[in-house]
Amino acid sequence: MTDFLNALVILANFILVPGLAYGSQLALGALGVTLVYGVLRFSNFAHGETMAFGTMLVILVTWMLQGAGASFGPLPTALLALPIGIAGAVVLCLVTDRLVYRYYRRQRASSVIYLIVSVGVMFVYNGLIRFVIGPRDQNFTDGQRFIMKAREFKNMTGLNEGLAIKTTQAVTLGTAVVTVGIVFWFLNKTRTGKSMRAFSDNEDLALLSGINPDRVVMIAWIMTAALATIAGTLYGLDKSFKPFVYLQLLLPIFAAAIVGGVGNPLGAIAGGFVIAFSELFVTFAYKRVVTYMVPESMAPEGLVQILSTDYKFAVSFMILVIVLLVKPTGIFSGKSL
Amino acid sequence: MTMSGRNIGLFALMALLLMSVGFIQSWDVSLTLLNLCIISAIMALGVNIQWGYAGLFNVGTMGFAALGGLAAMLVSVPPVTAAWKAGGAGVVGGIVAAVVTVIAGMYAWRKTADMGRSRYWVTGLVVLVGYVVLRSLIDPAVSAIEKVDATKAGYLGGFGLPIIFSWLVGGVFAAGAAWVVGRISLGLRSDYLAIATLGISEIIIYMLKFEDWLTRGVKNVAGLPRPVPYEVDLNESAGFQSWATGMGLEVETASSILVKLCYAGLFSIVLLVVLYLSEVALRSPWGRMMRAIRDNETAAAAMGKNVTSRHLQVFILGSAVIGVAGAMLTTLDGQFTPTTYQPLRFTFLIWVMVIVGGSGNNWGAVLGGFVIWFFWIEAEPIGHWLMSTLTSGMEEGHWLRLHLIESAAHMRLLTMGLVLLLVLRFAPRGLIPEVKR
C-alpha cells in the first residue's frame, strides 16, 4: 500500500503539479491566439513575442520595484509589476494594429497575407526585445520559493517520496483561474463581450446590428495583450525568461488552440492542459514508479521513458498531427467564441 | 526569357555592388558573398515556387534546408565500419520496425472504421506495440554506436560518395518531408500548413541535434570532402605556383580565389538549371493552372482541377529546391553544424528575399536573394558604424552607449522585419513584379 502511495506521490510531484502549472500557462497563451483568430481571423505568429514583450516590461518594472525596496511578501514582486507590463503590451498591440493590421483589414486581405505580416511583426518584436533586454537568461523570481518542501511532505506523511509545490506553481494556477474567470464573465455576461462573440460568429450580421468593428478589434487586442503578458510572466516566473524560448512556445500554444478548436475559448483551455499533460506523460521516466508498483525482481533497468525530454516539443507536434488527421476542427468543434 | 531594361539595370547594379566590395574590402570577401548569394537565390526560388506560384505559406524553410545539409553529410562522409558492426543491424531493424508500425497503424485505422470509439484504442495499441518493438531494437544499437570511438566518430558515418550527389539526395530528403507535411495539412485551412511546417522544421532541427548516432549531434561533422580542389594542394603544386606568379598574384590569394570561383561556377550551373526549369514550368499549361488555382481556388476546382493534390505537388517541388540549396550550403561550409540552423536566417530571411524581390517572379526571387543576402552581411559593419557615430557625443564608457553598440547586432532583426512590413504594405509586388500573362 505504501508502495502504491509512493508511486502516486512521484506522479503527482513530477506530472500533476508541473502539468497544472504548465497547462495553465499554455491555456492562457492559447486563449490569446484563439481570441485573435476569432475576431481578426488569422493565426497570430507574433503571439509568442507579445508574451515575451509583456514579460520583459514586467521584469524591468520588477527590478525597479526591487531596487526601491518594494516586495509582495511571500509572493513574487512580479505580480505587482504585472499591470504595468499589461499596459505596455496593450499599447504595443494597439500601435501595431493601427500601423500594420488595420490597413490589411480595410483591404480585406486574405488570411495568408495576415500570416506573413504577423511573421514580420514577430521579427520586429523579437529585435525590439533583444535590443532592450538582450538575448540572455533573466531570473526575476523572488519571494518564498516553496509552499511545501519535499522534506516537509515526507515528515508529514511518513512516505519515502516527497511532494514539492513551488510558490510560482500555485501562483500560476491561481492567477490563471482568476484570469480565465474574468475572460468568460466578460464574454458571456457583458454587452461588449456579447458583441465580440456576435462579431466572431457572423461578421456581416454583427455589422448590420450596429456593432462597431473597430471597437471589437480594439478590445480583442487589449484582451490578447493582457492574456499574453500574464501567460508570459507566469511562464517566466516558473521557468526563467529567455527571449528565444517564447518563439519555441509558439508551437505548443498553436497546438493547444487547434486541439481545442481554433476560435473556441473553452477549447483553448482544454487544449492547453491536453498538450501540457501529454508532454509530461510522454517524456517522464517511469522507472521509479514502476519499481514501486512491481515485485522487486521485475524492477526495470532502463528509464522506462516513452520519449527523451529533448523531444518535448515534438509531442505537441504529434498531437497536432493526430488532430489534423482525425478531427481537423478540434475537440470542441461547432462552437465559436 | 525577356527582360526589360529596368530589370537588367537592377541586376547590373547588384553586380556593381559585389564588385565594389571586391575593390573596397577584398575579392575574397566579394566571392564569399557571391557564393552565398547564389545559394540564397536558389532557396528563394524554392519559396517562390510555393508562394508565388501557388500561394502556400511555408514557415519551415529552415527544416528543409537542414535536411539538405544532412544529405550532404550522409552522402560524403565515409562509413564507420566499427559502428556499423556494433549497431548497424539494430538501427536497420528499428527503421524497418518504424515503417511497419506506420503501415500497420494506417491499416488498423482503415479497417476499424465501423468500430466507433474503440477504433482509437485499437489503432493506438497497434502503434504502441510497434513503438515498443522499435525502441527495444534501436536503443541498445544506438548506445553501442555512440560508444565506438566517441571522440572522433560515435556515429554510423555516411556512404563515402562524392559530395556533389548529395545535392540531389538533399532535394529528395526535403521532398519526402514535404510530402508527409503536405499530406497532413494541405486541404485544410491555410494556417494549418504554416503551423505544421513551423513544427516539422523545429523537430527536424531537434533530431539533428540529439540523434548522435546519425549526425553526431552538437559535436558536428567537420571536414566534409569537397567537390573542388583544396587550397593547400594548389599552393603546393608547382604548375599552379608558376601560373599564379605569371598572373602577378600571390599564391595564397590566387588559390583561395580560384577555389571560390570553382564553387561559384558549380553553384551558378545549379541556379541556372533551377531558374530555367522554373521559368519553363511557369509558362507551361501547368503554370497557368497553378496561377488559376492561386487566384481563385473555387473557380479552379469547378473547372475540374484537384486543388489539394496540385498544392501538394507544388509544395514538394519547392521544398526539394530548398533541400538542394541546403545541401549546397553545407558543401560550401565543409562541415555539418546542426546548431547553425536558426529560423531567422533560414526561414525568415528567405521570405524577405522573395517578398522584396517580387513574389511570383523567378527573376525577382533571384534578385531578392542577392540583394537581401548582400545587405544582411554588410548591415553588420554598417550598423556598428552607425551606432558608434550616433553615440559619439556620449562619454566613452556611458552605459547607454555600450548597450547600444552591443545591441547593434540585434538591429538586423528589427531592420529585416521592418523591410518586410514596409515592402508588403507599400510595394507588395516587389522589385521585379510578377508579369501579367
Explain the overall architecture:
The complex is a heterodimer of chains A (337) and B (437). Chain A is mainly α and 337 residues long. Chain A has a single domain, classed as ABC transporter involved in vitamin B12 uptake, BtuC. In chain A, 73% of the residues lie in helices and 1% in strands. Chain A is built from 13 helices and 2 strands; from the N terminus they run H-H-H-H-E-H-E-H-H-H-H-H-H-H-H. Chain A has helices spanning 2-40, 47-67, 78-107, 111-133, 150-157, 167-189, 191-201, 203-208, 213-238, 243-260, 265-283, 287-293, 312-326; strands at residues 146-148, 165-166. A two-stranded antiparallel ribbon of chain A has the order 1-2. In chain A, helix 6 packs across helix 7 (191-201). Chain A is globular, with a radius of gyration of 21 Å. Chain B has 437 residues and is mainly alpha-helical. Chain B folds into 2 domains: 14-79 and 157-426, ABC transporter involved in vitamin B12 uptake, BtuC (Orthogonal Bundle); 83-156. Helix content of chain B is 76%, strand content 0%. Chain B contains 18 helices and no strands. The mean pLDDT of chain B is 86. The interface between A and B is large, with 49 and 44 residues.
